[in-house]
Amino acid sequence: MIDAPKNLTRNILLGMFIGFVVGAILFYTNFLPSGIKQFIETYIFNLGSSIFVNLLKLLIVPLVFFSLVSGISSLTNMTSLGNITFKTVALYLSTTAIAVSLSLIVGSIFKPGSGYSSNIAPPEKLPQGQGIYETVLDIFPSNIIEAMANNQMLAVVFFSILFGLALNKTNHLTNNFSESFEKLNTVFMQLVIMIIAFAPIGVFCLIGKFVIADGLDIFQEAFKYVALLIAVLFIHAVVTYSLILKIFTNLSLTTFYKKMREVAIFAFSTSSSAATIPVTLKTVQDNLGVNKNVASFVIPVGATINMDGTAIMQGMATVFIAQMSGIDLSLIQYIQVVILAVVTSIGTAAVPSAGTITLVIILQQFGLPLEAIGIILAVDRILDMLRTSVNVTGDAAVACIVANSEGLLDKNIYNK
Ligand code: ASP
Asked: The pTM is what?
């Protein structure tokens, strides 16, 4: 195991706090000439955060490729691959279904949209998502370079598994070539550590960029929608994940949440599960003791298809918009929302605001007014940050459960 920089979490929290303070001072006061303010916003916050997110993204494809190939190619028991795949997908889909249901229930009880009228203008152009057909087809790339260049994670995972299997079968002919992938994987893990050493500065820029642009007033519009959504995100992150961890494992919950802090902060500041992959992978392997073979499959797949936080937003937004427009959804329609949200969350890209794009698909399905998406977008920035933290926490919880059930979780590392 490679050592991480000392006091990293504390320093990241500090970076976050200073980013908030500096961003807020610049947003709310005018003591600096606007030219200097503009300079700080562009060349410190925007440039700094883009550089940091680029560096994280830079690692995703090679990291996933080398770790999956090295894992699969050294596998001696292939049935465990099938079991891991089945458990992972089943858990991802069911936790997402629980997430939307929770949000629909809370939304129907507390009615965020009744009596609400907005003066927000509808967006000029509606965000466009892709359908189920394209999502499925995207798993099977016709050109791996293109898939890698576009960060299409499911395609990269699919190819890495195939490549790993072929490597596994030919190891005796290639003088154990799979060992080279093992070594490359170690090198890339070291790169992750080198880049996250800059996280305190990166997070400072990301948070500063957000606050300097929009201020801290997250409740400008649709107060009840925002408050209920945050409540459900919190309940799901704390109650649902604790329950499934308790039901399927005997692991300490405090340890899990404590060790996940850093990953949650990364997801919060980047609003992207994909950009967070390197940190999630490192944390579940090095701090939660999940075996590399399990982690390198479960985490990238989770970042792509498992979006509980996103599904919660979509459920709440659907209820909110339906109530606002005086449309009553029937029980059957509620069930359809659950199914649709589970399916669309698979097709939602793990990048900022992607969830609002797939929300359009759901609204369209039920004939709900698409213009209302303007209100959702107006308050989406901070909600996106929060739901992305929930998304990645879900990925890690499932990784722990799957690894534990296969006897592939090192409890010594977990409890350390
Ligand atoms: N930002 C989210 C993620 O990357 C996706 C979304 O809900 O917009 O996980």
From this structure: 0.90
